[in-house]
Specification:
single chain, about 180 residues, alpha+beta, BirA Bifunctional Protein, domain 2, six-stranded mixed sheet, three-stranded mixed sheet, 3 helices, 9 strands, about 25% helix
């Protein structure tokens, strides 16, 4: 039987509030895994999908470079945008109105233990979802995320991805851009 996944629609929510919720669920999962390894009689960690939208915010992952941020503090304030240096991989990511953000907080050991496979599964889920709307999403060789027209000069990223994993628990996830057609 497939593991149960709890889905939560958070609506439009401040980035920090959503990040705090992710951290809480993530830490609960990690703690359960630690207790299980000690032989405690606790249930497996719960799996969660958080669906939301954020006001204008830029996030910088652990491996990113602050110099890649094209707005300074004054420009962020003028555009009513926030900035956070966060604990996922990757560089600068924008989230904002009209963008669907999905945060899977999963215990990968309930499925498989391969973070690269997990990332490809996330990409595939987005590609299949886009196809239901008549949009052809694609992978781009050597890059993470989902693209439109990936092999042309008009290549555009439609879905950014960045995750954190510890003890096979995941957090952070995907930002699916709104694309006017």
């Amino acid at each position: 039987m497939a593991p149960l996944v709890h889905c939560h629609y958070l609506g439009k929510i401040d980035y920090k509030e959503a990040w705090d919720l992710q951290e809480k669920l993530f830490q609960e999962g990690v703690q359960r895994k630690i207790e299980l390894r000690k032989g405690s009689d606790v249930e497996l960690p719960q799996n969660h999908l958080l669906f939301c939208e954020h006001p204008h915010v830029f996030t910088l992952g652990k491996s990113g470079d602050r110099d890649h941020m094209l707005l300074n503090e004054e420009q962020l304030e003028q555009n009513n945008a926030q900035f956070y240096h966060i604990n996922r991989g990757g560089d600068i990511t924008y989230h904002g109105p009209g963008q669907l953000v999905i945060y899977p907080i999963f215990d990968l050991e309930q499925y498989f233990t391969d973070i690269h496979k997990y990332m490809r599964f996330l990409e595939e889920a987005v590609i299949q979802t886009l196809s239901k709307f008549g949009i052809q999403g694609e992978r781009s060789e050597g890059l993470t995320g989902v693209w439109l027209d990936s092999n042309s000069v008009n290549a555009r990223k439609i879905c950014a991805m960045g995750v954190k994993s510890s003890r096979w628990m995941t957090m952070h996830g995907i930002g699916l851009m709104f694309v006017p057609i």
